[in-house]
Design a protein that fits this description.
This protein is of the alpha+beta class and about 375 residues long. The protein is built from ten helices and five strands.
Length: about 375
């Protein structure tokens, strides 16, 4: 709005100056009169054209986008060709300023700093600043620290962060990305509008015939050039920030790394984790047994064959010993002469009395 007011005021001043020049040159020839009348007319026309363009340029609907996409779409957009907000959000060619903050610990301070410097150069970046403080641990309890601001190409940012993480102990990490797509497009639109104004002012300067007009036009041209340079500087700064991501690296020398925080499990989590670990251990034991059994199976077959042969040999020896023992344990029969056997007369038992026989009969009953 301020720019529009300024342009409108400048146009009025140019128009009034042109009228004054036209009135003062009434006594001159017809060629000079035509020239002085044409200058304010051209100034008014240029001011009206620029005012219209500036009004479109400062609106939020004019942003940088891919013209080839519009042409391939068959011109389905609006007459002005400006993309909508949804089209801008879906455009993959966004301008992001990425920043990474890292805090690292190392036991080999000199080696890490050297590796970081080499890695920055190999990835096509540069160290914007490097500050090292403190002395070595040898003979001193003071630890060394380093603060490095590295500018790394956006395409190689992940590689650099990964290399630092592998070479040290990362205690904290913070990443952020700022989307400046709309801001960049807005600045570029303002620059383009100022370029048009500069062109119009140069045309008017060629037509100006009075010193007052020349001074006014040159003053405005100086302001326009300064604003164009300011916008171009902002564009260069944003381009550099987009192309080169910033990594703020804090390195500390330590004897022992900071232990990771221990998470205390609840009773339910302990039960669940214990059961799952037991199941995993049981399954691992079953797998180990199956693998061990299958691996030992050929050796087991060989051992069974050897044991079978040994058992057969031992059994045969035992049977042989038993057979020999039985054979030697039998007695041979004694041979006697063929002599007649004489009968030996036994004495007759004494006869029992009738009473004794009666008693024996009673005992039997």
């Amino acid at each position: 709005m301020k720019k529009r007011v300024l342009l409108f005021t400048s146009a009025l001043c140019m128009f009034s100056v042109g009228l004054a020049a036209c009135g003062g040159s009434s006594s001159s020839d017809s060629g000079a009169m035509f020239k002085s009348e044409a200058a304010p007319a051209a100034a008014a026309e240029a001011a009206n054209d620029y005012d219209t363009y500036a009004e479109e340029a400062v609106s939020d609907d004019i942003y940088e986008y891919d013209n080839s996409a519009d042409s391939s779409a068959g011109g389905s957009g609006s007459d002005s060709g400006a993309p909508s907000d949804s089209e801008i959000q879906s455009n993959s060619n966004r301008k992001l300023i990425k920043t990474v903050n890292l805090s690292a610990e190392t036991k080999e301070f000199d080696k890490l700093i050297s590796n970081v410097s080499e890695r920055i150069n190999s990835l096509g970046g540069y160290a914007e600043s490097m500050n090292i403080q403190g002395s070595s641990y040898e003979g001193s309890n003071e630890r060394r620290t380093a603060y490095i601001v590295a500018r790394i190409p956006a395409s190689n940012l992940d590689q650099f962060v990964k290399s630092v993480s592998e070479a040290s102990n990362i205690t904290s990490k913070n990443e952020s990305a700022e989307d400046v797509t709309l801001q960049y497009a807005d600045v570029e639109a303002h620059k383009d509008s100022l370029k048009i104004e500069q062109k119009r002012l140069n045309e008017l300067l060629e037509q100006a015939d009075t010193l007052e007009n020349i001074i006014e036009l040159e003053n405005r041209l100086t302001e326009v050039r300064y604003e164009i340079e300011s916008y171009e500087s902002r564009l260069r700064t944003m381009n550099n920030q987009v192309q080169y991501s910033t990594v703020n690296l804090n390195v500390s020398e330590v004897r022992d790394y900071t232990p990771e925080p221990v998470y205390e499990e609840t009773f339910g989590e302990r039960l669940r984790n214990g059961f799952l670990e037991s199941c995993e251990d049981a399954w691992d034991a079953i797998q180990d047994f199956i693998v061990g059994f299958v691996s030992f199976l050929p050796m087991l077959v060989v051992m069974l064959l050897i044991l079978g042969v040994v058992f057969a040999i031992v059994l045969g020896i035992i049977k042989l010993i038993i057979k020999i023992a039985k054979a030697t344990g039998k007695k041979k029969p004694v041979k006697t002469a063929d002599k007649p056997v004489q009968a030996v007369a036994l004495p007759n038992p004494p006869e029992k009395s009738a009473e004794e026989q009666k008693d024996e009969a009673g005992d039997r009953k």
